[in-house]
Amino acid sequence: MKKWKRPDKKSLKQMIVQRDSARIVHYLLRLIVILILIAQVFNKNYENVFLCILTLILFSLPSLIETNTRIDIPDTLENIILFFIYAAAILGEMGSYYVTYPFWDTVLHTANGFLAAAIGFSLVDILNQSERFSIRLSPLFVAIVAFCFSMTIGVVWEFFEFSMDMFFGMDMQKDTVVTTLRSVMLDPTKSQKIVVIKGIENVMVNGKELGVGGYLDIGLIDTMKDLFVNFIGALVFCVAGFFYLKYRSKKASFIKRFIPTLVDKKQNTTNE
């Protein structure tokens, strides 16, 4: 009887010698987060303490998947996932990068579309490689499923942001200042005529000027921008993934570095 053998744990020296970049990155990032966690405990900032704990849990997920399944996550993909988590939770939320650098949220949503497409792509591709299934799906079908999977993840995340804003008083869907307003609600005749107001410079709420230089859009533009860049990330990966599957024999394919695969049974089993 054959039994699946879990990957052996490596020392830091072995990782450096074997150039195991994923584990080196994992331990370095985890060390940084632990140091930040300790600092936040001393500062009694318990919200940031929770974020650090959540980050450490998320860091462990790729390793848990590889340890408890036959799925092998390429080092390149694993490193991107770890940096993505760190950039979103530690730099974005705790470091206020979302406010300091307006492009930060856009970059992360683009990366999310790319990563989610890679995961969706791999789920179907792993089924294609499995000996339990006789059906082999075409590269085009796999790419379409991966694209839809990525966009679904993006939409669900926007649902989450909206829910947090509505029920917990947060501002995850960031506001945008606009100077032109179009609305049928301003039509006095109630005949669905669009009334346009251009050149908005000042807006008053309850007799107090907002002082933002225009009308404040509360999340719609941000949401649509996030979905659009998610679309771009997903499309780029799925197009590349389609050609990868169509010409899989080319071992040097760049996209191969982002696709988890099933580990070869012959190289990872022992006789019991």
Automatic annotation (TrEMBL):
Membrane-spanning intervals of the chain: 21-42, 48-65, 77-99, 111-128, 140-160, 227-247
Keyword terms of this UniProt record: Membrane, Transmembrane, Transmembrane helix
A Pfam match: DUF2238
InterPro entries referenced in this protein's UniProt entry, alphabetically: YjdF-like
Designated name of the protein: Uncharacterized protein
Taxonomic lineage: Bacteria, Pseudomonadati, Spirochaetota, Spirochaetia, Spirochaetales
